[in-house]
Amino acid sequence: MTGGRGRRPGAGDTRSLILAAARDAFAEHGFEAATLRDIGQRAGVDPAMIHHWFGTKEKLFQAVVNAPVDPQEVLAAGLPDDPERLGEHLVRTLLTVWDSPQGSAALVVVRSSMRSSRGAALLREFVLARVIRTAVAPLGLTEDEALWRGNLVATQLAGLVMVRYVLAVEPLASTAPDDVVAVLAPQVQHYLTGELALTGGPPRSPSGATPRTPRPTPRSSG
Amino acid sequence: MTGGRGRRPGAGDTRSLILAAARDAFAEHGFEAATLRDIGQRAGVDPAMIHHWFGTKEKLFQAVVNAPVDPQEVLAAGLPDDPERLGEHLVRTLLTVWDSPQGSAALVVVRSSMRSSRGAALLREFVLARVIRTAVAPLGLTEDEALWRGNLVATQLAGLVMVRYVLAVEPLASTAPDDVVAVLAPQVQHYLTGELALTGGPPRSPSGATPRTPRPTPRSSG
DNA sequence: GTGGAAATTCATTGCCCGATGAATTAGTGG
DNA sequence: CCACTAATTCATCGGGCAATGAATTTCCAC
């Protein structure tokens, strides 16, 4: 059991244990609601160790977030030759990453991005924009069409992440990856290479932004 | 400064003041990190009033979430007779609500809910679950199939909300509603009434949960 | 106007949090 | 095997939190 105090016997890579426990806890509760006591318990370690190794809760969080995955790199690996299989590749890759331990880290990033509109901007710029562009790059589309199809793909993939991982809605949260791929991949593929049903021609965002107008405003005050 | 205790003189719709203050506070800090003290201060009111009017912090949050819009009510209005037009109705209704001033309030709720698993649970229970069931109700499906198809619809709609409103990614954020409906409605319709491509039969969530496996765990301990 | 009901604040309770520092034990170099 | 350093736990502090109940004031029916 919990022996007395003092240095532990054998190996004990306590720092890593804390880091992993913190990653899970932050993913689960967000930064504010996660507690050092809980993290310590998950790591099987006294909460004081966290201060010993990381100083403060904030610094621990930074340590967790600074060990991210490069989405482009992951995506690029195993890109299929056939453009008609690209949708399947995207969905499967997404599921693989998010079902892995790295998924917790990704959850941390997504959750913490919601803390401010600046966080949302970061998520938009560095993840969505780059990832989506990487994803549709093999298709050799025009600039406008790449953006538009990329956005559509993003809606389906972002929605999958939301429902399955962030909100964990059943039954989708517990459905086998193969089944998810089977159902969603064709839809994603349609956004990539299918014929898009449009009433009055493609929504050619007429060069630059022309914000539609009286929408609630993409306010950045938060 | 603040006069003594006892009932206030004039009008004082305290309940509404608290509700508005709570909406802002939850939006800014998320459910867990928002404090009743802060909400009370924003509303210019003693925190004890919150307990007087709402009971607990959680009930206050529910009141905030349910205030902007009763999704069921909005959805029910204008339900098409033809099940094959249900997808279009869902997408169009969603865009109408989110493009309206109520959309700002909804955005607040979504942002704050995503930040912790607790907030996510509340969103899942009180909004998503009900909306999904209402949405697929006209189809007269079996329990399992309704849940499954509802989840799929939710991925597409939630993704639309994320990309267009929460992250405000261009060009989708500035695309005319009609164009969005034209492109997305067929996909949603497919989830509602189309034939779903499945490898080994429908993912009949085998009664109860069978958590896929070693994911970060949907633990509810927190 | 007077008596009760509703609204509001104050004072307090108990809990949990993050942080700190002393006490204790295990490794390590000589 | 002895000193020294690093790792770990324990006990505790001050603070902020949600919640409760009593005290006080206004409103309203009669």
From TrEMBL, chains A, B:
Residues 213-222 have a biased composition (Pro residues). InterPro entries: Homeodomain-like_sf, HTH-type_TetR-like_transc_reg, HTH_TetR, Tet_transcr_reg_TetR-rel_C_sf, TetR_C_16. GO terms for molecular function: DNA-binding transcription factor activity; transcription cis-regulatory region binding. Signal peptide: none annotated. Transmembrane segments: none annotated. Pfam families: TetR_C_16 (PF17920), TetR_N (PF00440). Residues 196-222 are annotated as: Disordered. Residues 35-54 bind DNA. This is TetR family transcriptional regulator. It comes from Cellulosimicrobium arenosum. The lineage of its organism: Bacteria, Bacillati, Actinomycetota, Actinomycetes, Micrococcales.
